[in-house]
Structures are given as C-alpha cells and as structure tokens.
C-alpha cells in the first residue's frame, strides 16, 4: 500500500508516472519531482521559478491576493483573491491542502460557478484557472 500524507493523499516513489486518470488526487515522487494528478494530467509541484518560465509554487497560510502564473498550496480555511485585472493566458492554480478555500473573483468572471462568482475548493482538491480573455477565467 502506498504511503499517504496528512491529508490522505498518496505519496509514493515511482520509476515512471502512471496514467493520471488512474490516480486523481495522488502525489508521487519520481526523479527529482513531486507530481500531483488532477485526474487529467500530472503537475510537478517542485517545478517553476528560474528564468525559463513555468509556474512558481508557494505554500500560504493567510488570505492572499494571487499573482499570475503562480500556484498555491493553501493551509487552513482561506480566501485566495484574483487580481482585479487579468490578461489572456495567465494561469492561477490553488490546492486546498488542509481547509476549504474560496477563490474570490474580484470582479472577474469564473465560467461555471454560481451567482456569487466565487469558486469553493474542498480539502484535497486542486483548481487550475486559465484566463481566456481579459476578466474571463475558465476552470481547466
């Protein structure tokens, strides 16, 4: 049986990554990466930074206004607020590690959410939002 972290997510050392669809919500160690499956694709949580682009990951324990092309591992019940101005192509990723997280739209439109236009993320879930056009985000 694979090891699990405090949130119950699978954490195991593997030689190669299996199909993401078979391991939704799992975290696996492969090479120098820590990989997370959202059920569609694997994301290396340790990638980013540096001058080559990519997503920069941060762990946050306070309510935060997000920055473009950043990903957040959020501890506790928090509000993660989108910037008031967004540009097509920007990416925002939020993982609710140990509490329910609300992504506050801040005047943007998040396709597929209710009248509040805020997105609620349950513990252990990850949401990836992509700006399709200025002020309009889609959950992918």
The number of strands is: 15
In whole angstroms, the N-to-C terminal distance is: 30 Å
| CATH topology tier name of the largest domain | Jelly Rolls
Secondary-structure-based class equals mainly beta
Q: How many helices?
A: 0
CATH architecture of the largest domain: Sandwich
The coarse overall form would be: globular
Low-confidence stretches are none
In helices, the fraction of residues equals under 10%
Mean pLDDT: 81
The fraction of residues assigned to DSSP E strands is 35-45%
Structure overview:
A hairpin with a 2-residue loop joins strand 3 and strand 4 (33-37). The chain has a 6-stranded mixed beta sheet with strand order 6-8-10-14-15-12, with no helix packed on it. A 5-stranded mixed beta sheet has the order 1-2-3-4-5, with no helix packed on it. It is built from no helices and 15 strands. The protein is an all-beta fold. It has strands at residues 3-4, 10-13, 27-30, 33-37, 42-44, 56-60, 64-65, 70-74, 78-81, 91-96, 101-104, 109-110, 119-121, 126-133, 136-139.
Task: Give the tags.
140 residues, mainly beta, six-stranded mixed β-sheet
């Amino acid at each position: 049986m694979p090891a699990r972290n405090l949130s119950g997510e699978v954490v195991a050392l593997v030689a190669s990554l299996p199909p993401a669809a078979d391991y939704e919500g799992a975290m696996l160690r492969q090479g120098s990466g820590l990989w997370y499956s959202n059920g569609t694709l694997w994301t290396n949580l340790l990638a980013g930074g540096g001058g080559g682009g990519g997503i920069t990951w941060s762990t946050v324990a306070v309510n935060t206004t997000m920055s473009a092309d950043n990903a957040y591992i959020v501890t506790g019940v928090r509000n993660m607020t989108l910037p008031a101005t967004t540009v097509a192509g920007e990416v925002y990723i939020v993982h609710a590690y140990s509490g329910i997280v609300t992504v506050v739209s801040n005047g943007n439109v998040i396709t597929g959410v209710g009248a509040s236009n805020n997105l609620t993320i349950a513990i252990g879930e990850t949401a990836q939002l992509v700006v399709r056009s200025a002020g309009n985000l889609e959950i992918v």
